[in-house]
């Protein structure tokens, strides 16, 4: 016998979220959105966490495909191998809450397309792997888009203390999550627990910004 899957209606999902979050908080989340630049170990988990809270819209940006090396710390599964991360993650989000508006851009972020890509985004999660790409996006946004909030990740490699991962407000609109030091360039591997811890800090900071709480 073929297994049947239950699909909740939009009203049923909203009823559950209101019960969990209260109506005022749910309304703020439902009317909010965030962009996620980079859909690897950080970005894929941030997107799923925000989807589970009931955020209204997500803008997912990545040019890469799912590879076997991604499976140790990212949300993807073997069935996603070879698929673009934007498509695979959008599919996973639809399994959690099909009523979230998900926009995707299958493109590499450069200084030449930042303005176009993030034109409508007020909260941007930086979730790149490489330090130079992180710096490029953050510095450009700080200089050219002072109206945006940036939640960046730095330092989550290895399996050191969970307590060293934290969120810090670096500038008026810039929040940095991680331990600030551990780096795969030093030969330390990336593991699911610490990467996910950092992603949770990013997702939580985005929720705080949505709810108007700008201090860490």
Automatic annotation (TrEMBL):
Signal sequence annotation: none
InterPro entries xrefs: ThiF/MoeB/HesA, ThiF_fam2, ThiF_NAD_FAD-bd, Ubiquitin-activating_enz
Occurrences of domain THIF-type NAD/FAD binding fold (ranges): 26-214
NCBIfam families: PRK08644.1, thiF_fam2
Protein name according to UniProt: Thiamine biosynthesis protein ThiF
């Amino acid at each position: 016998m073929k297994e049947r899957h239950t699909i909740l209606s939009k009203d049923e999902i909203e009823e559950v979220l209101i019960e969990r979050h209260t109506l005022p908080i749910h309304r703020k989340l439902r009317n909010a959105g965030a962009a996620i630049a980079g859909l690897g170990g950080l970005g894929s988990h941030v997107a799923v966490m925000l989807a589970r809270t009931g955020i209204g819209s997500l803008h997912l940006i990545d040019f890469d495909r799912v590879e076997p090396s991604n499976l140790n710390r990212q949300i993807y599964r073997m069935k996603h191998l070879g698929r673009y991360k934007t498509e695979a993650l959008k599919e996973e989000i639809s399994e959690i809450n099909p009523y979230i508006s998900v926009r995707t851009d299958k493109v590499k972020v450069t200084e030449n397309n930042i303005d176009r890509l993030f034109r409508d985004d007020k909260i941007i999660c930086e979730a790149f792997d490489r330090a130079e790409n992180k710096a490029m996006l953050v510095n450009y946004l700080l200089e050219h888009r002072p109206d945006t909030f940036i939640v960046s990740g730095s330092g989550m490699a290895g399996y050191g203390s969970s307590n060293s991962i934290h969120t810090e407000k670096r500038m008026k609109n810039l929040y940095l999550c991680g331990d600030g030091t551990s780096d795969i360039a030093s030969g330390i591997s990336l593991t699911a627990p610490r990467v996910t811890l950092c992603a949770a800090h990013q997702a939580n900071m985005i929720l705080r910004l949505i709810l108007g709480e700008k201090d860490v």
